[in-house]
Amino acid sequence: MSRFLQVVAVPEAVRAAVAIAPATAPETVPVEQSAGRVLAAPVVADTDIPGFDRSVVDGYAVRSADTTGAGDAVPALLRCIGRVTMGRSRKLVIRDSECAYIPTGGTLPDGSDAAVMVEYTEEAGDTILIKKPAAPGENVLLRDEDFRKDETVFRPGRRLTPQDAGVLAACGCARVTVAKKPVVGIISTGNELVPVTVIPGPGEVRDANASMLAAWLSEYGCVPRLYGIVKDERSAFEAVLARALPECDVVLLSGGSSKDDRDMTAGVIAGTGEVLIHGIAIAPGKPTIIGRIAGKPVFGLPGHPASAFVVLIAIVRPLLDTMLGQKKPLLRTVQATLAENIPSQRGREEYVRVRVENGTATPLFGKSGLLNTLVKSDGLVCIPAGYEGLEKGSRVEVMLW
User: Fold this and answer.
1) pTM to 2 decimals?
2) Angle between helices 10-19 and 317-324 (to 10 degrees)
3) Given phi > 0 = left and psi -120 to 50 = alpha, else beta, which region is 56?
4) Over the stretch 80-118, which tens digit does the pLDDT of each residue have?
5) Neighbour count for residue 300 (Cβ, 10 Å)
6) Are 146 and 88 in contact (CB under 8 A)?
7) What does the alpha-carbon distance between residue 88 and residue 310 come to, in Å, rounded to a whole number?
8) Domains of the chain: which residue ranges?
9) Average pLDDT value for the chain
10) By percentage, how much of the chain surpasses pLDDT 90?
11) What angle do CA 172, 175, 180 make, to 5 degrees?
12) d(CA 132, CA 244)
């Protein structure tokens, strides 16, 4: 327990957490289920995309040289030799002073190098009046303009979007290799906790942390697994931890990181594994524990909701990013101007909840045990450890919830 006195800086804590991130095997999923998953293998185009020169407008395929100088007063007169049929291989060849009707997505006929929108044309029997000149390649998508055969389209570490799923399908990927979702166990500790379904009695509180942590983890691409509430009894604590470890990649112990002798988290972790860190220069969240049991990361999070949430984002999230192979963290930020001074204590990294409106960040000062500031705020502003606060009018980066 003496390690608690050896408080470490946030960067050191993050490095320690990332260093014990266990490797997880990738898996394949149907491309239509790939949105939100992190790519674990490169995706290479198996053919040129779109694969043929095609029009991006409804109009006429032309030789651009035949439209030089065309306008409303003196249109270019071209003979229409037919229509391009979608999805068929009918061969049309455009020669001098000829054109062919072409729909959006239609294959550009041989001999043509541009398309003129139908709005700039007029029919006169088989003669088409072209009222606007077309440059070479205008309104045309070339056969390899999207992606070339053997080109790397996506690299590992990309969190896939619905748009990406469309590109994957175009590349012939019916299934895609992605990082397996980390399974994160959540164990709530404390004699004062009761389930969400129970009306609290004197001195009791509902277990809000487990639901909050699970919801965030699910949104971040993990699989949360709840193990319920454990009272402050060592044997019960050890039993549920022994059950969770084989089933999970990471275990979060909510409410067991205090220095109080009644809190057994550090002792239990040390008894069956090792305590790497017990105390981080972060506010809120100083008494956080980082440990490892049987190769599995185990975190002792503070019991106060705001403290637990800050530690989840600042310390646990980088470990999850490593497990997912995620190159770009799923963390939205926005620049804002600070509405008032924020005092801070030099030597610790402090996270302050703020509300953002019209580019202004207003601090919501409150105790770490309060829930209302979590829902009234839009995100967090980090005050670096070397600062004694931030002044009104400062430009800050807000980490959005």
Assistant:
1) 0.85
2) 30
3) alpha
4) 999 999 886 568 999 999 999 999 999 999 999 999 999
5) 29
6) no
7) 59
8) 2-25+181-324, 27-49+156-178, 54-141, 333-400
9) 93
10) 85
11) 145
12) 71
